[in-house]
Amino acid sequence: MNKTILITGGAGFIGSHVVRKFVSDYPDYQIINLDALTYAGNLENLKDIEGFPNYTFVKADITDAAHILEIFKEYQPDGVIHLAAESHVDRSITNPTAFVMTNVIGTVNLLNAAKEIWKDNYEGKRFHHVSTDEVFGALGETGLFTEETKYDPHSPYSASKASSDHFVRAYHDTYGLPIVLTNCSNNYGPNHFPEKLIPLCIHNILNEKPLPIYGDGKYTRDWLFVVDHAKAIDLVFHQGKNGDCYNVGGFNEWQNIDLVSELCKQMDEKLGRAAGTSAKLITYVKDRPGHDLRYAIDATKINQELGYQPSVTFEEGLSITIDWFLKNEDWLNNVTSGDYQKYYDKQYEG
Ligand code: NAD
Ligand code: TYD
Fold first, then answer.
1. Which of 226, 252, 277, 344 has a 20 to 30 Å separation from 124 between CA atoms?
2. Does residue 209 line the site of ligand 2, with CB under 6 A?
């Protein structure tokens, strides 16, 4: 069926995988990638599909309400998949306002534009908001986040995402806007920006620099391969129940120190370095303020209702990821030149 789908944040890490999937799997759809190209947005992520006839890139900032409405009027999307965001917890600690602007105000601008062009005729329309498990706060040693878990965000990042989730639900409850929401765990994979733990450590291992582990390294995250996340978004966008939210996770918990040790092991093998070489780079550093102990998702709902299954084990996904970074050293060098170095020095040496 012919549809126009507007994907925000499509030049970012997860967004580029979602854009690629939709452009390749749905040749009848027109895919509009709307992105401001902040430090995290990179059109090199989409080189392989940029010439496809069903793909259009539009540079725009979601905090600019008038421009967003103009774009919605021009392209008349039937569906929106909203991924544009400020996404890094450490940056939210140093500059929370940027997170309120993009994640809260930007989301409301998109909701207003969708409501305006759909004019209460919601047949065949859908606004899919992509969010995080961090809105649920921190777990102790046991338990899992379900769709019923109460919101309890701690970082400015998770507070801004929680607020955006509430606005999306409020537009459904108040105006009947057709929405679905996904809250997923930590993603990893190709194109991951090296401010986040896994690509930062890959970059530092390649350059034989210290691997900074916050606190005691016992913090736990549930890791999800980005290609599997894109698959889950496709399923929920097309088959999710109107007004519902779905948790997406990997049933794949790792303490940070164990994860980095596994990464060191695989990197040593792939780089032909003696076993134990990269692990010597592990360095415990000052903890992140308000650091959430543990995130873990119960993905039973999406599994049972929509048949979602991750396609790879963590070891396989990590191996694919490392291979991608080794084959794409130019990509890594490009994104770590310039402003990245300033960010890195301030965050880790300042
Ligand atoms: P990212 O930081 O890699 O990419 C964000 C993209 O949004 C970039 O292309 C950037 O240019 C764009 N953007 C930022 N501000 C914008 C603005 N004002 N207007 C238009 N575009 C703007 O983020 P990501 O890791 O790909 O995350 C995508 C989404 O998934 C986010 O909403 C994030 O909260 C959510 N999420 C991410 C993870 C994760 O592990 N990375 C986990 C759960 C949920
Ligand atoms: P990160 O990749 O920033 O994702 P999030 O904060 O959204 O979970 O961090 C993953 C985990 O790794 C988290 O517990 C913080 C920790 N971490 C470090 O120990 N060192 C680092 O340099 C970074 C960036 C993260």
1. 226
2. no
Domain boundaries defined on the chain: 3-191+223-252+295-314
- Nearest to residue 297, comparing CAs of 159, 158, 185, 140? 185
Q: Domain 3-191+223-252+295-314's class?
A: alpha beta
Q: How far apart are CA 175 and CA 149, in angstroms?
A: 25
pLDDT bin (cut points 50, 70, 90) of residue 350 is: low
Q: Are 87 and 157 in contact (CB under 8 A)?
A: yes
CA distance 282 to 209: 9
Residue with tokens 């806007």: 177
**Coil, strand or helix at 33:** strand
pLDDT in tens, 238-267: 999 999 999 999 889 999 999 999 999 999
Torsion sign, CA atoms 44, 32, 199, 85:
positive
Least Cα distance to 62 among 90, 98, 115, 31 occurs for 98
Cα 279 to ligand 1 centroid, rounded to whole Å: 30
Among 102, 89, 112, CA closest to 158: 89
